[in-house]
Structure formats: structure tokens, C-alpha cells
Amino acid sequence: MKTQKLAWMFLGVTHASVACGLLGVVDQVSSDGQYITSRKLVALVEEARRQGGFEQAARDMAQMHRDFMNSDRLSSRVRRRVDIDYSKNVGLLNCWVAMCTDRPGDPDCQF
Q1: Which residue range(s) make up the domain with 91?
Q2: What are the pLDDT digits (tens) for 41-92?
Q3: What distances in angstroms separate CA 98 from CA 5, 49, 90, one per listed residue?
Q4: How far apart are CA 28 and CA 103, in angstroms?
Q5: Could you give the number of structural domains in the chain?
């Protein structure tokens, strides 16, 4: 039963989502900057739709990344984890930008 469910899920995945990925991670940091209190998956396509496109979402995510990295309140461990997660998120969104430039007809590129 589980195998059938996974097979049906994969049938609905487009070429762009396979090439670039669907999910990113956003970290919630404690108020003192010493701990990551939670890590939440974020649907990149939905985030891009809310923000008006992949380019805007990539710019916004890159700005959030810079803001976190410029904060002097983060511990080195938290800074490292946040840097990794935001770098991956921005990279995935930039992959979507490139994919949608090459394949504007892809269903996930239509807003």
C-alpha cells in the first residue's frame, strides 16, 4: 500500500520539481540567538507564488540570509546551520528561475 501511494505521488511531479526540488528549510532561532528552536519545511513553489515569482522569492530569501548573517547575536553553531539552510534555499530558488527561463511552459512556472 505504501509503495502504491509513493508511486502516485511521483506521477504528479513535474520535470522542474525533480530537477530543482520542492522543499526548503527555514530555521526559527531563539531570542538570544544561541539555539535553533525549530526547523520548518517550506514549499518553494508556493512561497514563490505568494511573492509573485521565483526571482522575487530568491531575492527575498537572499536578503533574509544576509540579514541573519549580519546579526551579531547568533552563536557560531546557529550561524553555520542558518547559513547552510538559506544557501540551499536560495540555490533551489535560483534553479527554479533558470528552469522557468528555459521552460516557461512548465506547469509549475505558471502563476
Answers
A1: 2-109
A2: 999 888 898 999 999 999 999 999 999 899 889 999 999 999 999 999 999 9
A3: 31, 16, 12
A4: 34
A5: 1
- The DSSP-derived string for 13-46 is --HHHHHH-SEEEEEEE-TTSS-EEEEEEEEHHH
Whole-prediction pTM value?
0.77
SS (H, E, C) 52-103: CCHHHHHHHHHHHHHHHHHCCCCCHHHHHHHHHHHHHHHHHHHHHHHHHHHC
pLDDT in tens, 20-35: 888 999 999 999 999 9
- Whether the CB-CB separation of 44 and 23 falls below 8 Å is answered with yes
